[in-house]
Amino acid sequence: MRERFTTIFIVSNDDRDTKFYTVKTKHVERFRRYSVISLSALSAILVTSLILFFMISSAKNEIGSLNQKIYGLKNDLKLLDSLEIKKKVDNIENNINDINKYLNERGMFKSENSGGPEDAGGMTDVSIYQYYQSKTESILKTIKNVPIGYPHVGEFKSYFGYRANPFSGRGSEFHKGLDIKGNVGDPVKCTAGGTIEKAEYDGGYGKCIVINHGNGLKSVFGHLSEFNVKQGDKVNAGDLIGFVGSTGRSTGPHLHYEIRYKEESINPQYFLNIKNQ
Ligand SMILES: [Zn+2]
Fold this sequence. Notes:
By secondary structure, the protein is an alpha+beta fold. The chain has a domain of 116 residues: Glucose Permease (Domain IIA), CATH 2.70.70. The strands form 4 sheets. Strands 3, 6, 8, 9, 10, 12, 14 and 15 form an 8-stranded antiparallel sheet that branches. Strands 7-13-11 form a 3-stranded antiparallel sheet, with no helix packed on it. It has a two-stranded antiparallel sheet with strand order 1-2. A hairpin with a 7-residue loop joins strand 4 and strand 5. The longest helix is centred in the N-terminal third of the chain and has 81 residues. The model has no long low-confidence stretch (mean pLDDT 84). It binds zinc ion. Zinc ion binds next to loops.
């Protein structure tokens, strides 16, 4: 077969530098083939790049939506947390309510508002907590002024209520307190915070201390040998106020312990033990 030739002109703009080449046609065809192959390769690369680009952007979108989901879940958790906190605050409110109710029933606590805040809806978190703080502080203060526990540990010699005359054994008399055996000089401790109303000799009570705890409550300690406090002193539960003796109308060393509410004697045994149910 005769060899074919192709002439290629290269024409410049100003017509001064026009050149022409004559090459074998098979070279031109080979060049065309290579061009086609190169173009296909380029297209393939472009397509792959595009696919990769779309994959990356869809992955990015997915990450974005996952982040949004996480944010939503975090908010849900926050909501759950605040629901949990609200539940606890409600429980605290119920407990405070019960304590107030109980103390009111015992006539020991006068509260202007025994429930929760009247308008919790308008209150911020801080003011609600502030409310409960002052409420619990007030309850603690009241409880600290309620005589609780033993002023002196010893065997009970005589109980609150009617009893036979301890001197003659005949006839009955009302015993206003609890007699606890002891030795002369044993320490006597006060059972709640208060102010010493009296620390002096008082007839049948002998050397006697009266403590005013507020809220209508008083505690009385009779037949002491010595005082460790004087009138007007402030005391806290557990303070040493005096010593066991046998002064006044007494048949032997013991502590006469009395609790008065609004000047009426009540059974001190109710106040000795407070146990969790
Ligand atoms: Zn007594």
